[in-house]
Amino acid sequence: MRRVVITGAGTINALGHNVPDTLEAMREGRCGISDLDIRDVERLQIRIAGQVHDWDAEAQFNRQQIALYDRFTQFTLLAAKEAITQSGLEFGGQLAAEAGVVLGTAGGGVNTWDENYRAVYEDGKNRVHPFVVPKLMNNAAASHVSIEWNLKGPAFTVATACASSNHAMGLAFQMIRAGGARVMVTGGSESMLCFGGVKAWEGLRVMSRDACRPFSLNRNGMVQGEGAGVFVFEDYEHARARGADILAEVVGFAMTSDAADIVMPSKQGAERAISGAMRDAGLAPTDVGYINAHGTGTAANDKTECAAVADAFGAHADRLMISSTKSMHGHLIGGTGAVELLACIMALREGVIAPTIGYEEPDPECALDVVPNTAREAKVGAVLSNAFAFGGLNAVLALKRA
Amino acid sequence: MSVKDEVYRIVAEQAVIDVADVSDDKTLEALGIDSLGLVESIFAIEEAFDITVPFNANEPTSSDFDISSVGAIVRAVESLVAEQKAAR
């Protein structure tokens, strides 16, 4: 079994258009959630989001590219460029054949669906642009990353709602560990902040109208975000041989299914994924210093997640730190685990634990150290990242300091 | 159809029971309607009466819309219909 390390990271999200800006915002506990600025927002009841502002696609891509790149693909390509540039890898010859890309997204090109449904239904047009299908397909982002960077090995997309990018990164880890690839570009992206995308979530009645306050007694729901997180996962021996800067080691992954309810989370399913990731990593509960929580800010998730952590860790649950950065960047749905992995890397590499902001009142059902409101300095050797999706699909990653 | 008859019909359909088994004093829970069924019932009420119901599933009891019993829901719908029709 090969060891797997992370040698590059990239992102764009409501906190920043790159990794340094995002980490600075997390250290400062800055909130990226703002008034939603989209067409027909006045017909929505939910009018806040972790939206990416000041995004200028024309500055990054030419006209032909934009005709093919939905916003979720644009975000992915920007984040992939940052990650791959940091890794210093160039993909040619045998390495290209042994390098791939696996990304998560829940909705794919939601903006493209939305705009073209408008054109044919609302505006009564009988013609759409020839590239609507290749633009909206869920694998568009993964394919464009492979094309742009000459990745000729395994390439595919995983769609497991809010666990998509954790599932994608877990598969990338397993593939390199088992020898099926040497390098995998992995993570995820989402961009469903358009009228149809927000309206669908609004219908579920779980969205907050004012803020995302995970674990706080007065929390009143989730807030959508958008963006991408992309990483370079690499065979440790390969990375060491070329003297790469190693950001962290990926040491374990587990996925479970609740097999119970399409939206209500299960404590047992979450606990099995958390314990499974530690077992896969060979970590004892006492080794884990920090968990990046799924922490959506809904009533159901946060209490179920805390109960699952308490079950998985026993007495150590009261000594570890657990925070939800969704309070700052919102819930990126299929891209969320990827942006949240940045907080895990920051914890391991810089010894800074990102806070759960917006925390106002303790909830006896969430009685863990949620690192309220202010980042904390702490040396941690191993961390977990939780993702629990609608459909009862759970995916947990374990990382160690390089 | 009165507001009461329509709410009873929606609740009965959601609970998959006979309308005759619905009464003002019953809670949705007692009728077997779970949190998802509640969200669907509220959607059906909004559609039937063309009103907007202020309801957040994260804090079902703290909203102005009283869901403590079928009778409470009927009264809440009646006042929303009156309010929102007047505002138009």
> What's the tally of helices of chain B?
3
Global shape of chain A: globular
Reading side by side through the largest sheet of chain A, how are the strands ordered? 5-4-6-7-1-8-14-13-9-10
- Average pLDDT of chain A, to the nearest integer? 98
Strand fraction band of chain A? 15-25%
Helix and strand content put the structural class of chain B at mainly alpha
- Uncertain runs of chain A are none
Helix content of chain A: 25-40%
What's the helix count of chain A? 15
What's the order of the H and E elements of chain A? EHEEHHHHEHHHEHEHEHEHEHEHHEEEE
Q: How far apart are the termini of chain A?
A: 18 Å
Q: What does the largest sheet of chain B look like?
A: none
Distance between the termini of chain B: 22 Å
Order of helices and strands of chain B: HHH
Describe the structure.
The complex is a heterodimer of chains A (402) and B (88). Chain A has 15 helices and 14 strands. Chain A has helices at 19-28, 57-60, 63-68, 71-87, 93-97, 110-122, 132-136, 140-149, 164-177, 195-203, 236-241, 267-281, 299-313, 326-329, 336-350; strands spanning 4-13, 34-35, 48-49, 99-104, 155-158, 183-190, 227-235, 248-257, 288-292, 321-323, 352-353, 376-377, 382-389, 393-400. Chain A has a 10-stranded mixed beta sheet, sandwiched between helices. In chain A, a hairpin with a 3-residue loop joins strand 13 and strand 14 (393-400). The mean pLDDT of chain A is 98. Chain B has 88 residues and is mainly alpha-helical. Chain B has one domain (3-86): ACP-like (Non-ribosomal Peptide Synthetase Peptidyl Carrier Protein, Chain A, Orthogonal Bundle), CATH 1.10.1200.10. In chain B, helix 1 runs antiparallel to helix 2. The longest helix of chain B has 17 residues, at 70-86. Chain B is globular. The model of chain B has no long low-confidence stretch (mean pLDDT 92). The chains are: A alpha/beta (402), B mainly alpha (88). Chains A and B meet through loops of A and helix 2 of B.
